[in-house]
Automatic annotation (TrEMBL):
This is EGF-like domain-containing protein. InterPro entries: EGF. Residues 532-565 form the EGF-like domain. Residues 664-683 are annotated as: Disordered. Coiled coil: none annotated.
Length: 697
C-alpha cells in the first residue's frame, strides 16, 4: 500500500516537519497521506493539508492508515496539524482522519474543518491500540450514511482511547458520537455541540434510529469528566449494554433534544442500561417526549437494569412533552437499581410528572438525601404514575346499587373516575383520538342479563359518564362491570374495572302490572321478558284501544289498521246486485229490440220525424250506460275499473252530443216538436234512472 506523502514499513522511521500540501487526490487502495505497517515509527510536526479528496477501496483514514503489525505495531505521533476541505468517497466504512491498528498513537493540537464523506468515521481503531487525542478540534462534519464518529472497535479488552480537550461541533448528519466495544474510553475536558443538526432541520438523509451520544457494548468501560454536551439531537442519548460500565463526573448536558432521554433502556438499545455512576453533573434545558434524562421501558430480566446512581446532580429547566420531566420508568426493577442522591430539582416540567412518571410507585427510582423531596411529592404534577385504579364517582352517582325492572332504562346517574398510585385524579383529553379512554359496560351474567343502548363510551375531562342503557334480565341480583378497554396515552393497569350492584325486580309484583297498565312479554330478547308500559305512538284513533307495542284494538269501531285509521270496506248487497243485473240485462235486450224495430219501421212518419239515426244513437248510448251499471255490480279489478271509467266517459260524451243534436232538431223541425219532445223525455228518463243508480251505488 502506498501513501500519498509517505509509506513507512517494517521497522523504518520517518520524521516530517513543516509540511504544507493542497489539492491532494488520493486514489490509491488506502487513500491516506501516510501509511504505516509493521513496527514502523512516524513523527509529524507542523502539518497543513488543504483540499484533500479521495477514498479507499476498503477501510482507511485520509491522514494515516496502519496495518499488519509485527510485534508492537506502528508508533505514530503528530503535533500541530491543520486539515481542511476534506472529501472522502468510498462504499466501505472509512475515516476522515485516522485509522489505527495495533500500536501507539498520539495526536496533539490539530484542527480538522469541513470534512464530509460517504460512510466516514472521524477516528477508527482496532485491537491492542493505545490512542490519545489532545487539543483536537473537529468542525463541520458530515457523512452520507449514519456511522459512529469515534469507533473504538477492538474485539478484545486490550485497547485504550483517551480524548482530552477534544471539541466536535457542527455535525450535520446522524450517527452516534462514540462507540466502545470492549475497551476503555476516557473523555475529559471535551465539548460536543450542535450534533446531528439535520434532525433539527428535518433534512436527514439515510436516517437511522440509534443512540446519539454513545454506545458501549459488551464489557466496555467509558469514563467522562469535565465535559459538555450541548445541542445534541437524536432519538436517545446512550445505548449501554447490561455488562458495560459508565462513569460520568463534572459534566454538563445542555439543550439536548432526545426523544427518549439521555440514558435510555428501550427497544433500540438492548432494553437495558449497564452500571452507571453520574456525580456532580448538571442537566439543563433538555427536551424529550418522555423522560428527558432517564427513560426506562419494562425490562425483561432483573440484570437488564444494573445500578444507576446519580449523585449531587443538578436538574433544571428540563421538559418532556408527554411523561416525566426527568424520569420515565415502567420497569419493576427501577426502585431497586436506580438512585438519586443529594440532587437538586428546579423548574422541570412535563405534561404528566414534572419530575417523575412511573407505572406505579414500585417502578420509581429511590430519592435519598434530597431536602425538599416531600414538598416535591406534594405537588399535583411533581410525581405521577400510570392510572392505578377506577372507582365510582360519588359526586355524580347517587347510589352504588341500580334497581330496575327488565326492559327499563337505567335512570340512576352513573360515572366513574380514575386515579393514579398517588391518588391523583386522572383527566382526559378527548379531543385527540390517541389519548381517549374507551370503556364498555357488561353484566357479570351474560346469559340471564342483556344490555342495550350505549354500552360503549369514552371518558372526558375527569369523569367517565354512563347513560342511555336498558337492562333486560330475569329478576334477581347481579353485577354491572365498568371496563376500560383502551388506555389512550397510558398503559394497561390491572384494576381497570369498577363494579355496581344491579337488582332486577319482578314485573308481576308491580301494582301497575296488576292493574293492566304494564306488559310483561318478550320484546328486546327472545328468551327474557321485558316489563314495560302500554304505549302506542302515534296514539290510537277513532276510539281504538291501545294494546301496547304500537298495536290498537279497533273492535267496536268502523275502522281498521294498526292505529284504527282506515275506514272499513262495506260488504256488497248481493241480492240488490242480482236485481240490478237482471233489470239491466233486460233493458239491454229491450234496447236492442228497439233498435231493430226502429230500423224496421224507419219509414214511419213518427219515427222518421224523430230521426232514425238519432233514435238509434240514443239507444246505443243507453246500452253503454247499462254496461257501465253492470260493471258497477262486478268485483273490482284493474281491468274492470278501466272498463268502468271508459264506459262512463263514453256515456257522458254521448249525452252531451245528444243534447246538442236535440237542440238543433228543435230549431229545424218545428212541426215535429211534440214527437221529439216525447222521445227525448223518454230517453232522458231512462238515462237519468241509470245515472241515479250509478251515483247511488
Amino acid at each position: 500500500m502506498n501513501g500519498v506523502i509517505a509509506s513507512v514499513d517494517n521497522y523504518a522511521s520517518l520524521d516530517v516537519e513543516n509540511y504544507y500540501g493542497e489539492n491532494f487526490y488520493t486514489i490509491s487502495s488506502v487513500g491516506a497521506a501516510f501509511v504505516g505497517s509493521g513496527d514502523a515509527q512516524i513523527s509529524v510536526r507542523n502539518l497543513e493539508l488543504r483540499n484533500i479528496t479521495g477514498g479507499a477501496s476498503y477501510g482507511g483514514g485520509l491522514l494515516i492508515t496502519t496495518y499488519t503489525p509485527i510485534i508492537n505495531g506502528v508508533t505514530f505521533s503528530i503535533d500541530n496539524c491543520t486539515l481542511s476541505n476534506i472529501v472522502q468517497y468510498s462504499d466501505n466504512a472509512c475515516s476522515l482522519f485516522t485509522w489505527f491498528d495495533k500500536g501507539s498513537f498520539t495526536v496533539n493540537n490539530c484542527n480538522i474543518k469541513n470534512a464530509k464523506g460517504s460512510k466516514s468515521h472521524l477516528h477508527y481503531q482496532n485491537n491492542e491500540s493505545k490512542v490519545t487525542f489532545n487539543n483536537v478540534n473537529y468542525d463541520t462534519v458530515s457523512s452520507n450514511f449514519p456511522i459512529s464518529l469515534i469507533n473504538l472497535d477492538a474485539t478484545n479488552n486490550n485497547s485504550f482511547l483517551h480524548l482530552n480537550n477534544v471539541k466536535i461541533s457542527r455535525v450535520s448528519s446522524p450517527g452516534v458520537i462514540y462507540r466502545n466495544n470492549v475497551s476503555i474510553l476516557k473523555i475529559s475536558n471535551c465539548v460536543f455541540e450542535n450534533i446531528h443538526t439535520c434532525e433539527k432541520n428535518k433534512n436527514c438523509v439515510n436516517y437511522e434510529a440509534s443512540a446519539a451520544i454513545g454506545i458501549t457494548e459488551n464489557d466496555g468501560k467509558t469514563y467522562i469528566s469535565n465535559s459538555k454536551f450541548n445541542n445534541v439531537y437524536g432519538v436517545f442519548g446512550y445505548s449501554l449494554c447490561s455488562r458495560s460500565y459508565t462513569e460520568i463526573s463534572e459534566t454538563i448536558y445542555q439543550n439536548c433534544n432526545l426523544e427518549y432521554g439521555i440514558f435510555s433502556a428501550n427497544d433500540l438499545s438492548y432494553n437495558s442500561i449497564g452500571e452507571v455512576s453520574v456525580r456532580n453533573s448538571s442537566f439543563l434545558n433538555n427536551n424529550s417526549t418522555s423522560g428527558a434524562v432517564l427513560f426506562i421501558k419494562k425490562g425483561l430480566l432483573p440484570d437488564d437494569l444494573r445500578t444507576i446512581r446519580l449523585e449531587k446532580c443538578n436538574f433544571q429547566n428540563n421538559h418532556a412533552t408527554k411523561q416525566g420531566g426527568i424520569i420515565y420508568s415502567i420497569s419493576p426493577f427501577t426502585s431497586k437499581n436506580v438512585i438519586f442522591s443529594n440532587c437538586n430539582f428546579f423548574n422541570n416540567t412535563a405534561k404528566l410528572g414534572d419530575i417523575s412518571y412511573a407505572y406505579d410507585q414500585a417502578s420509581e427510582p429511590k430519592f435519598i438525601n434530597i431536602e425538599n423531596i416531600q414538598s416535591l411529592r406534594k405537588l399535583s404534577n411533581g410525581f405521577v404514575t400510570n392510572p392505578s385504579y377506577i372507582t365510582l364517582d360519588e359526586e355524580y352517582s347517587t347510589s352504588d346499587t341500580i334497581i330496575s325492572y327488565s326492559g327499563q332504562q337505567i335512570t340512576n346517574p352513573i360515572a366513574c373516575k380514575i386515579y393514579d398510585d398517588y391518588n391523583h385524579l386522572i383527566t382526559f383529553n378527548y379531543k385527540i383520538l390517541e389519548d381517549v379512554f374507551f370503556y364498555s359496560v357488561t353484566p357479570n351474567d351474560t346469559y340471564n342479563v342483556k344490555l342495550f343502548g350505549q354500552i360503549y363510551g369514552f371518558c372526558r375531562n375527569s369523569s367517565c359518564p354512563v347513560s342511555n342503557i336498558k337492562v333486560v334480565g330475569i329478576p334477581g341480583k347481579y353485577q354491572l362491570n365498568f371496563n376500560i378497554i383502551t388506555f389512550g396515552q397510558y398503559l394497561y393497569f390491572d384494576n381497570s374495572t369498577a363494579h355496581m350492584e344491579l337488582e332486577i325486580l319482578d314485573c308481576e309484583d308491580n301494582e301497575q302490572y296488576k292493574l293492566g297498565n304494564l306488559l310483561y312479554k318478550y320484546r328486546e330478547s327472545n328468551n327474557i321478558k321485558s316489563c314495560y308500559k302500554k304505549t302506542c305512538d302515534p296514539s290510537c284513533k277513532n276510539q281504538g284501544e291501545c294494546l301496547g307495542d304500537n298495536q290498537c284494538n279497533c273492535k267496536g269501531t268502523k275502522y281498521i289498521g294498526n292505529y284504527c285509521e282506515t275506514l272499513k270496506l262495506r260488504e256488497r248487497n248481493v241480492v240488490f246486485d242480482n236485481v240490478i243485473w237482471i233489470i239491466t240485462n233486460s233493458l239491454i235486450f229491450l234496447s236492442i229490440v228497439l233498435i231493430f224495430s226502429i230500423y224496421y219501421y224507419r219509414e214511419n212518419a213518427n219515427i222518421k220525424g224523430g230521426g232514425v239515426d238519432f233514435l238509434i244513437i240514443i239507444l246505443i248510448g243507453t246500452i253503454f250506460n247499462y254496461v257501465y251499471v253492470l260493471l258497477l255490480t262486478s268485483k273490482r279489478s284493474k281491468i274492470s275499473c278501466i272498463l268502468m271509467f271508459s264506459f262512463y266517459y263514453i256515456v257522458s260524451i254521448n249525452i252531451f252530443s245528444l243534447n246538442n243534436n236535440n237542440n238543433n232538431n228543435n230549431n229545424n223541425n218545428n212541426n215535429n216538436n211534440n214527437n221529439n219532445n216525447n222521445n227525448n223525455n223518454n230517453n232522458t228518463f231512462v238515462v237519468n234512472n241509470v245515472v241515479l243508480y250509478r251515483d247511488f251505488h
